[in-house]
Amino acid sequence: MATPYYVSPEQMMQDKAEYAKKGIAKGRSIIALEYNDGILLVADNPSSLNKISEVYDRIAFAGAGRYSEFENLRKSGIRHADMKGFLYSRDDVNAKSLVNAYSQALGTVFSQETKPVEVEVLVVSVGLCNDPNEIYRVSFDGSIFDEKGFTVIGGKSDALLTKLKDRYAASPISGASLKEAVLSCVAVIGEVNGQKINDDGLEVATLSRSGSGRVFRRLPQSELAGYLIS
Amino acid sequence: MPRSLSKIMCRKEGSNILKFNGSESSFHQLLIDNYPSFFLAPSSEGEQGRTPLSVPHGTTVLALKFQGGVIVAGDRRATEGYSIAERRIEKVHAVDETSVMAIAGAAGPCMEMVRLLRVELEHYEKIEGIKLSMEGKASKLASMIKMNMPMAMQGLVVMPLFAGFDAKRNCCRIYKYDVAGGQYEEAEYYAIGSGGRDARGSMKKIFKKDLSHDEAIGVALEALYDAAEADVATGGPDWVRGIFPIVKVITEEGIETVSDPVLKEKLSDLIVQQGE
């Protein structure tokens, strides 16, 4: 008869966290950065599978790590938002409730399943009128981080975050134009990767504060190329 | 928080992992799975032989093609039996950037179907990352109408006209439906609702192929005007209150709503013309 062995809860959690972190560290990164008319999302993503997505009128999603896992979370988020908007009103869909739902789902999987999810999720939303923008990061164990100005998820997030902090230590970031913001993101990704980034290796989208209705927009390759050349 | 949001978050987990049924991009299906009560028809016991439920009904709407696009228009009246329930109801609704649904029948269920189709199309686009084709939109609407059959049996009929720009074929298309969810494509023009017959008769005489944008608006207004003259449930232009038909023009570029001053001018010309 096999002897049952004992693993302390601390050890189990630590192992799971390590496993999840390793999985995420393998992938590329995504930056969320405020600019003068909203929030910019830049993913270091040469593939045609999207990492950034529209969720609702003024809310966007980005996922890093294992594709199948964050794609599932992305779809669930859209279902959550559309259902809430249909049952109540479009005005009642907000980032906070979505982030809470993600946190609950990820937290439950982390504590109850054998294999934790190897993803990090970003939920950003631009405010209406004078409401502030919101940037939330949810990690593999369900913890939520309420970020200001900018944040990074994915493999090289620490290195990118340090570079961004250096860059924006002096001046406030929210004053940058879209072009300036795109260029900063491209520059820091290039520095960290150790090679120049081309427009076809990026997935870029914005949420515009000044727009009405669905304000999520993917930047077409041509527009991106224009920013990078000049 | 809605009852089963947590359930939605976990959809397609567990035993459903290998069940690919192609419905996971549909909001309509999501609603059916999670809130079946939403689609319940009122009890039909003892209803036989009774008069249909008394609720506001929308009346005449029409669609016609012109050079480069399609026009969808509707009068502004809703009736409840012999009384006027609404003078300013809008029966022509954009459901996305290039398609429009015009409704005739029980106003409440009609509006709800517009709302549902709107969310359905947006949901599909977000989940799949690509827009539903024009034919896909039309047949989705057909299945929604079919699901409404039990309600229709009790007088809550939803009868839309669906029109829009088909980006795959680079042309505009018009679809009409029957109560059972039957879907039929129209080549040139069509009108439905209580005054639909009169509007069709009118368009039969004045419709031509490849009308210009302005001519087509004129034809739509004349057909609605004729319908309002012959059908009590269709509202004509109300000069005192300043209520005019809703006219939407759909082209490749999107949807444009014709403004009241333009409609007013065209209607004045029309009346002078008809008086001669």
Strand content of chain A: 15-25%
Biggest sheet strand order of chain A reads 8-1-2-9-10
String of helices and strands of chain B: HHEEEEEEEHHHEEEEHHEEH
Terminus-to-terminus distance of chain B: 63 Å
Total count of strands of chain B: 13
Description:
The complex is a heterodimer of chains A (about 230) and B (about 280). Chain A is about 40% helix and about 25% strand. Chain A has six helices and ten strands. In chain A, the strands form two sheets. Chain A has a five-stranded antiparallel beta sheet, with helices on one face. In chain A, strands 3-4-5-6-7 form a five-stranded antiparallel beta sheet. In chain A, strand 1 and strand 2 form a beta hairpin. The longest helix of chain A has 21 residues, at about 65-85. Chain B is an alpha+beta fold and about 280 residues long. Chain B contains eight helices and 13 strands. Chain B has helices spanning about 5-10, 25-35, 105-130, 135-145, 150-155, 195-205, 215-230, 260-275, and strands spanning about 55-60, 60-65, 70-75, 80, 85, 90-95, 100-105, 160-165, 170-175, 185, 190, 245-250, 255. In chain B, strands 1, 4, 5, 6, 7, 8, 9 and 10 form an eight-stranded antiparallel beta sheet that branches. In chain B, strands 11-2-3-12-13 form a five-stranded antiparallel beta sheet. The N and C termini of chain B lie far apart (about 65 Å). Mean pLDDT of chain B is about 90; it is low at about 1-5 and about 10-15. Classes of the chains: A alpha+beta (about 230), B alpha+beta (about 280). Chains A and B meet through strand 3, helix 2 and helix 3 of A and helix 1, helix 2 and helix 3 of B.
Q: What's the quick description here?
A:
The complex is a heterodimer of chains A (230) and B (276). Chain A has 230 residues and is α+β, with helices and mostly antiparallel strands.
